[in-house]
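One record is kept unedited as follows:
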Amino acid sequence: MKKQNGLFRAIIESPKGSSQKFDFEPEQGIFLLSKIMPAGLVFPFDFGFLPGTLGEDGDPLDIMVVSESGTFTGCALDCRIIGVLRATQRERNGEEMENDRIIAVPEISDLYKSTRAIAELGRELILEIENFFVGYNRLAGKEFKIKQVAGPAAALRIIKNGKSKSNKNDFLVQIFLPISEKPEFGCTLERLQDTLTKKFGGTSIYPHNPVKGIWKDGGRAEFDQSIIVETMLCCLDLSFWSALKTDLEKALDQKEILVRTLKISTL
């Protein structure tokens, strides 16, 4: 996710110094412990992904965040992109693909506050990062080859391409809001629209085609009408949507509001 100040937000999966490999599972909004590395092998720096992007392997672009200290699994960091390790990865079955590693530094870092390009890290540190990725993949039965160490311009082109690919594989979130004549309904709808537009860049509301609902409660038939609020996004954060659902139920005095998520593809 690119911010207005030119920074990119990274999500950390495996923190600096960790001997455990975590993978984010977007459908459930959890971090899965996927691997315990051999004794002595740890991540040299925070490692994670750039949400809203897609790499050749079908996952978000990988990013390593070089800093004087580590964070934790699930931490979000606003980073400055300084370069990329252009690489190919050969799987156990012989399949080969591009698998670049974006390199960044945290905006809040003191040690790297003036770093703007990967070359400024020094050849020794760059080699340490390269050797980690090569050795890590070798232990997994894969071959990882560094083709080129490139600067921020090349990295930004890869990110731009990754964003374009990500737009072809999205989630659709639909919120069914029961229509009410109470004043709080209009205010809640406006706040919801503002929240979703700011966070995801836009939303759609269908006020003129209400959905008619019918269900039974204690043997009696109940009816209501709802409007649908839709938002498209590339990464599903279930904790955000669960909290939003709870807030809407409280604001509109509803026992339950239906929030539906769908995996979609766009042309």
